[in-house]
Every structure is written in structure tokens, then in C-alpha cells.
Amino acid sequence: MPDVKQLVQQLSLMADSVASPPAGVTILIYHRVGGGSDSAVDLDVDQFDRQLAHLAEHHRVLTLDAAVAELTAGVAEGWGAANRSDADDSGGAEPAAARAVVITFDDGTPDFTDVVVPALERHQLPATLYVATSFIDEGLDFPWGAPPAEWAPLRESVATGLVTIGSHTHTHGLLDRLDEAALDDDLDRSIDLITEHIGVRPRHFAYPKAVPGSAAAEIAVRRRFETAALARNRVNRPQRTDLHRLWRTPVKRSDTPDLFAARAAGGLRLEGELRALASRVRYRGAER
In this model, does residue 269 exceed pLDDT 60? Predict the structure, then answer.
């Protein structure tokens, strides 16, 4: 008998079959690859390589900047065609131009530079890494036990031309737990460290735990970054997306090839809505 998560996934796939995901950009969230932990978001190396091969074959994999340009302009060839009711020559699949994907990673662990970047180079696919700078700068393990990456390998990853570094705050704390002074210091410290060590001021931001926090926190983020990312299995649609509320879809180690294909295509939306609801309840009730 399937467990609750499997049941939700099955129901989500059924819902997708009734209402296909709209055309737009799917942003995938990864955390670790080959890290050797038992975390649900620490993927097997071969599994990740197969996923990259799938993306290279079936999707347009964009840099985050290119995706933002398309979402803003809404002129990418194929957006309108993706909503046709008639099947195309591929047997009903969406036109390739409509199936855009962005690969993103959170946190900044050494497996990104040691495992992920070589895989991206093999497949010639771009990705964005949102780093929590205090752990990297101080050489401290993340609270969940993962070691931090180092600045020099991160600079080398950017030099490949495939990697963009964004901010995931300085301390990886929930922003609605901080007063205004601490909030400003946390965001500015992250920006300064990335600029100093990578040589480029970060333009993109991802909220820790995908929790936007207070109105003051959101204002502070909007003032500093061109985009900000949350998590919910939704397609980002051209000319209908708030760039400071980009939706991302988490990838899990338990994902079968079919589930991953559905995520990349913008599916499993019901699962995302239920997960977002659970997160709001969980973090709203946390001690501040």
C-alpha cells in the first residue's frame, strides 16, 4: 500500500493529466549530489547524470538570466504554440521551445564543485548556485551536518561560463526572525562576500526554507536583488510572473525517471501546493 507521499504523487500525476501544465519556465531545486548522506535531497551521482541527459534531450535548459529575459519579454518562440489543443508531429508533446528549464542548487557544499560542475560541463548545461556565505567564509558545517564549499573552487566553477552564483543569505536564517538591522546586515554581508570572492555582485536570491518572511524582509530583498526564489511546483509564466516570487520545484532522491520528467515539465503541482501549506504551518509555529 503506498505511503502518504506516494499517494500525493499519484494524485498529482492524475491532476496533471486532467489539466496539463501551462507553457513557461520550470525552475528545479537541487541541494546535493554524491554527498554520501542519507538526506532525501542528496542524489546519487548516476541518477543526476541521467537527469541532466534527460534535460539536454527534452528541454531548453536556460541560464537564470536568460529565463528572466524570456519571462519579462514573453516573446519566446513556442509560448503560444504550447497551448494548442492539436497534437504536433511528436505525438502530442509540447513544442520544445515551450519546455524551458533552469537548474538551481542551494547552500554551497563541496559536491557542487567536485561532482555537479564536471557533470554540467559534460552535458554543457548551465546552473545557478545560491550560497549561504557564512558557512563558506568561516569553514563551518551547515546545521544539518554537510560541509561547506570553498571560495577558490567556486570561482573556478564560475570561470567555466556555466555557473552563476546567487545569495541564499549569510546565515541561512529565516528572514522573518530578524529585526531590521540584523536583516540588512545579513543580506549585505552575503552580497559583499560573494562580490569579494567571486568578483561579481549577486543579482539573484533564494529564501531559506522557501519562506519569504515579513513584509519588511521582502522589501529588503526586492531592493537588493533582481530576482528572488521560493518553492512550489508551479511553472513561471511569461509576463505573468513576479520576478521576486519565482517558483521552484524540488528534486528528490526518491524520484523515479517518470516523476523527474513530470517535475521538469512543470507537473506535480498538487504536491507542491500541499508541501507549501505544510511549510507555512511548520514555520509559522516555530519559536522566534
Answer: yes
